[in-house]
What does this fold into?
Amino acid sequence: MNKYLKYLILPFLILFIYYLNPFDLFLIGNETTFICVILICFVVEYFIEKAKNGEEIYMRPIAAIKAMEEAVGRATEMGKPVLYIPGISSLDEIDTISGLIILGHVAEMTAEYESNLHVPVCVPIVMETAKETCKESYLKKGRPDLYRNDMVHYVTDDQFAYAAGVNGIMLREKPAAIFFQGKFYAESLILAETGNSIGAIQIAGTGSSSQIPFFVTACDYTLIGEEFYAASAYLSGSPEMLGSIKGQDYVKVGCIILIILVFICSILNSYGYVNFDISSIFRVNVIK
Amino acid sequence: MKRQIAYFLVVFVGFLALAGHFIHYAPLNDFIDNDATQWFDIIAGFAAFLGVINLLQLHLNKVANKRQNWEYSIFTLFGFILMIIFGFIYNGSGFDMGPHLKKEGSAFYWMFKNIYLPLGASMFALLAFFVASASYRAFKIRNFEATLLLISGIFLMIGRVPIGQLIPWWITLEIYICLFFAIVANKFNDKKIMLYSLITSMITIPLIILFLDLTNLSILKIPEFQEWIMNVPATAGSRAIMIGIALGTIAQSYRIITGRERSILGD
It folds into this structure.
């Protein structure tokens, strides 16, 4: 028990120092964000530690993640390629990074099944990272001979030109499985509907909340919201990574409790039973 | 060793960027806000050359080896070379090279305005047709959720067009009654009873509403009802997803900057 005590003491010590702000060390105006980041990081770290120490972590089955291997298997059986689209944003977006991490796992599957992988990319820097990711995955699976240099290739930087290019690839090559994993904008539906029209099994995942409805409609499986970020941890299966997901889920429970608390307090405040407007402390302060 | 350096850089820069948002130290704040983003832009700029080389390599190989669909590669190469010529070599106007890219009258600008923009607009316009086909699939009545989606969709569509404003309260009420009976229809064993109940409800309920003077209720006005759908249930759902995304982003970033998520570095 004592070894976990640091996860209780340390965050509050940091927050206490932040409150005292010695030597004017911390920026003013970012309090809410700082408190949230510290608490979330320590909760996640606590569960990672617990998982490392052998605690069993239950993971809710996510259909989209389970379907990834099936999709690659289907493509292999049909003798058709797997198309992987890592979105249209650059590496400064966490969605793109998550998409590339999932690409690594998908590339391992295609290496194992000896299936043909095709990754058209919109941003040159993403192309270089995706190339390295695929190369390492093929090497890890002991099949560097199957890796081709043109597996990952650049199409264009322009949003709709990219959509047109990828649509062309879909219609000409008729891939059996299509993965949309990354940051998408208006082109999401154009791509997903074309994929749907050729009868490919489609698995989407994005953090763009406005594109999720389009993917849900046009794709067979969709990783919604945090599922997308958890997918890489889920696929890796390492206890450390799974522990972080459990920690994230506990933070979510905390958020739900806070929302209910704020809801009740706001009602009491509006009827004059409580003078303090609790919601004011949750308003995000952003400096600049 | 090479890989260890990469891990170290990811962890160091990750924590540095995080600290830059909370530590009051002007050089650090300046580095995070300006220099770091500029460094990224410079690296990404160099990667652009790699992209161009990759594009040329891929399509030249395709044409040279006459691989499947090589004919399309000719068009790609033709477009690429043409834009290079009009961008760097032939101006076609009296403007200096460089500024000519944005000056009306130059060959590059003409190509941009008359070829590139219409093609982009055409792709964007395709979205309307794809939205229609996607909506058709989504609105197909398969289960309770799909039915709910269909009903909400219809109310939203009607509420956002001018004719929605003209629909009187009693027609809206009749729509609600019909929808209610459509949902509970399978609970009735005798269809005649259902029909009589529907007709009775369609006559009596509007009269009751009229008698109680509740005709101004927001729910009986489709534009106001669709506004409520957008502001309450739709916003609640999207915010739930947003909270999940925010938590996922923090957890994912934490895994990366603590060096636990290494697949991005090819581990």
